[in-house]
Task: inverse folding
């Protein structure tokens, strides 16, 4: 039987990066709280505005929060009313008007919905992801292996940035911030071995604006990004 495989170690790094990115997002009111094993929401005055009735839930982003109702996930608004019915096997935060969802409990693949609950991009990604500035990292499937970095996808599900370079492969993609995205690539040799990776920054046209010369690089915030060439210094 043919099965889709994953890359466990790489996937773990990717999940860590995604949830670290999530921590930098602005979560809205009301705040998520856990009481007696269930989740509910509290306003800025510490008053419960949505009862603790969900076994699993996420923070509010863009006015909606993913909550688990029974065995399925859906979305509520800030009053606690159902905004998108609970019909998903998995759900994630809204960002840039889109949210990662898993449609089939027997499939590891994630797609995207818009705020009406319409499936805008069919399941094809191996993990939940964030849209930012109209694009999302395309960690898709290749040769039955999940979480392979392939490029960037727009809200129609089309790959608009591929980054195909002879003798090179993408190692990691990050989301766009202030028009640039940090990307790591490494040489791939004919014998299948790979060289040391380097990070640089691309624009939305897929052009390298800042060359690959860093061993680590972060997102731009207020015109600046932390990066290091590997000599122990950061700039």
Result:
């Amino acid at each position: 039987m043919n099965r889709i495989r994953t890359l466990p170690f790489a996937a773990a790094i990717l999940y860590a990066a995604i949830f670290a990115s999530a921590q930098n997002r602005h979560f809205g009111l009301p705040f998520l709280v856990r009481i007696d094993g269930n989740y509910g929401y509290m306003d800025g005055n510490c008053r419960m505005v949505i009862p603790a009735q969900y076994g699993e839930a996420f923070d509010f982003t863009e006015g909606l929060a993913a909550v688990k109702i029974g065995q399925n996930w859906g979305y509520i608004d800030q009053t606690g009313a159902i905004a998108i019915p609970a019909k998903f096997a998995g759900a994630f935060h809204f960002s840039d008007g889109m949210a990662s969802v898993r449609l089939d409990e027997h499939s590891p693949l994630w797609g995207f919905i818009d705020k009406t609950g319409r499936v805008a991009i069919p399941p094809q990604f191996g993990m939940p992801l964030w849209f930012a500035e109209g694009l999302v990292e395309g960690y898709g499937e290749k040769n039955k292996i999940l979480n392979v970095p392939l490029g960037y996808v727009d809200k129609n599900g089309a790959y608009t940035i591929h980054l195909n370079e002879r003798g090179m492969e993408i190692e990691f993609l990050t989301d766009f911030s202030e028009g640039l995205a940090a990307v790591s690539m490494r040489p791939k040799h004919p014998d299948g071995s790979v060289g040391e990776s380097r990070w640089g920054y691309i624009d939305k046209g897929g052009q390298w604006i800042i060359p690959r010369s860093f061993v680590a690089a972060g997102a731009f915030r207020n015109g600046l990004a932390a990066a290091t060439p590997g000599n122990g210094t950061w700039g």
About this structure: The longest strand covers residues 145-154. The chain is about 5% helix and 45% strand.
